[in-house]
């Protein structure tokens, strides 16, 4: 890459000389209007060429320079490849930069458990213990172009240890967590009211914060839970999605004491798939409400799931607002109401759904998070999907955080029962659904 840059610089200098060396003509030479026009055009194209060359030379360097995981004395990232013969690692930072790590006989290796803040409890390991997917900090003097570092020390957290920690955190957030959409804020009391949809219907829960509550917020273009940055109450807005970890008293299940709070501003859109391109990771849809075209961008960290059609025959989570929600049977009876939430005893169900803390009823978002994951290849033209996305610059391009396909069944279950003679409206199921699965689990 460096040789290519040098080559481009040399070529640019050559072009500069070639274009700016004056053509010697007699003083009495007459320049026509066409000559002057040609000179102006050549100058314009020269300036454009220099601009493009400068952009090509600096864009990669700027991206590397802005990478927070690359500092003067270390680089942090996931091991992408290992060259045992050359004793080199290639690591990829969270921002996507590649850094070559050179090792030698004096390099030391330390293994650290996830969550540890110092090397006090680190154990000695060797080069042979490193594996692709491990997360490392390479300590040494980083090169000026920020693309390589001769490492004096490697600190490693193994892929397996990180996976175990992440799974333990997911279980904890499911068991003691809550998810919903902010409907009211009381800064003076440090209270947040959220709308939380259960199989028993929509309920309001008051989230109480204190001075020790840890608050984080999703970055505008991030889809990763781990990228959430420190935040405070002043950044909260009605309509934001919220996930909290904490406890609620059995005697008052509509109040929740939060230890950790993660928020974000997301869009939830439903639509029918018109095209799928697994190669580019893009899905095109027409939205349910106004048939507007959207492009859904599926990145590596996006979570895709399928809602099974057979769940609709089991009664599902009840009808939405305006229909027999909350378990009230529809006029004339019906199988769907017979399977509604009141038949489920309070405190029963899966972890995080009526378990410890007296949670009243199974949460729809909990249910969606337990659906089996799929790949973009499993999404087909004609499928109805629901996608939660970041608020990007282009309103017609949505970067997916979570996507559920087969959503026509779910939306039909959530939509208000249509009046006699009216056709079902799946978009109505999305509007009042309480679906807020933008904030994922750790």
CATH classification, class level of the largest domain: Mainly Beta
Strands of the biggest beta sheet: in what spatial order?
A: 5-4-8-6-1-2-3-7
For the sheet with most strands, the description reads: 8 strands, mixed
* Helix-strand string: HHEEEEEEEEHEEEEEEEEEEEHHEEEHH
* CATH domain fold name of the largest domain: OB fold (Dihydrolipoamide Acetyltransferase, E2P)
Return Rg in Å: 29 Å
Q: How many strands appear in the DSSP assignment?
A: 22
CATH architecture of the largest domain: Beta Barrel
Oligomeric category: single chain
Q: What's the name of the CATH homologous superfamily of the largest domain?
A: Copper binding periplasmic protein CusF
- As a percent range, the share of helical residues equals 10-25%
Q: Helical region count? A: 7
Structural class estimated from helices and strands? alpha+beta
Cα separation of the termini? 36 Å
Question: What does this protein look like?
Answer:
By secondary structure, this protein is an alpha+beta fold. Helices cover 21% and strands 30% of the residues. It has 4 domains: 2-65; 74-157, Nucleic acid-binding proteins (OB fold (Dihydrolipoamide Acetyltransferase, E2P)); 178-264, OB fold (Dihydrolipoamide Acetyltransferase, E2P) (Beta Barrel), CATH 2.40.50.320; 266-431, OB fold (Dihydrolipoamide Acetyltransferase, E2P), CATH 2.40.50. It contains 7 helices and 22 strands. It has an 8-stranded mixed beta sheet. The model is unreliable at 1-29, 52-63 and 316-361 (pLDDT under 50).
């Amino acid at each position: 890459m460096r040789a290519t840059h040098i080559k481009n610089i040399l070529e640019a200098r050559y072009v500069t000389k070639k274009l700016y060396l004056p053509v010697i003509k007699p003083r009495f030479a007459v320049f026509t209007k066409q000559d002057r026009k040609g000179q102006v055009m050549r100058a314009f194209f020269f300036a454009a060429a220099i601009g493009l060359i400068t952009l090509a030379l600096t864009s990669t360097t700027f991206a590397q320079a802005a990478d927070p995981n690359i500092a003067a004395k270390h680089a942090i990232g996931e091991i992408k490849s290992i060259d045992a013969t050359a004793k080199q690692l290639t690591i990829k930072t969270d921002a996507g930069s590649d850094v070559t790590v050179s090792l030698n006989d004096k390099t030391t290796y330390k293994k650290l458990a996830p969550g540890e803040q110092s090397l006090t409890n680190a154990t000695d390991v060797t080069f042979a213990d490193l594996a692709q997917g491990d997360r490392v900090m390479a300590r040494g003097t980083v090169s000026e172009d920020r693309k390589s570092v001769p490492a004096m020390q490697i600190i490693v957290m193994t892929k397996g240890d990180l996976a175990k920690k992440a799974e333990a955190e997911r279980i904890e957030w499911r068991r003691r967590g809550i998810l919903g959409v902010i409907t009211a804020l009381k800064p003076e009391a440090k209270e947040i009211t959220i709308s939380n949809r259960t199989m028993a219907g929509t309920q309001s829960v008051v989230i109480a914060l204190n001075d020790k509550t840890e608050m984080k917020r999703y970055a505008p273009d991030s889809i990763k839970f781990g990228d959430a940055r420190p935040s405070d109450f002043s950044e909260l807005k009605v309509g934001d999605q919220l996930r909290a970890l904490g406890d609620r008293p059995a005697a008052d299940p509509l109040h929740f004491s939060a230890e950790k709070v993660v928020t974000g501003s997301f869009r939830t859109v439903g639509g029918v798939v018109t095209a799928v391109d697994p190669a580019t990771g893009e899905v095109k849809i027409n939205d349910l409400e106004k048939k507007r075209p959207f492009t859904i961008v599926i990145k590596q960290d996006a979570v895709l799931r399928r809602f099974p059609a057979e769940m609709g025959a089991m009664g599902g989570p009840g009808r939405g607002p305006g229909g027999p929600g909350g378990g009230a049977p529809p006029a004339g009876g019906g199988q769907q109401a017979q399977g509604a939430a009141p038949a489920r005893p309070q405190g029963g169900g899966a972890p995080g759904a009526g378990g410890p803390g007296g949670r009243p009823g199974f949460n729809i978002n909990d249910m969606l998070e337990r659906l089996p994951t799929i790949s973009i290849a499993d999404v087909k033209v004609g499928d109805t999907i629901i996608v939660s996305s970041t608020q990007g610059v282009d309103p017609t391009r949505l970067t997916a955080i979570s996507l559920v396909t087969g959503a026509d069944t779910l939306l039909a279950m959530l939509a208000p029962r249509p009046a006699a003679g009216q056709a079902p409206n799946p978009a109505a199921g999305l509007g009042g659904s309480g679906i807020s699965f933008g904030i994922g689990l750790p």
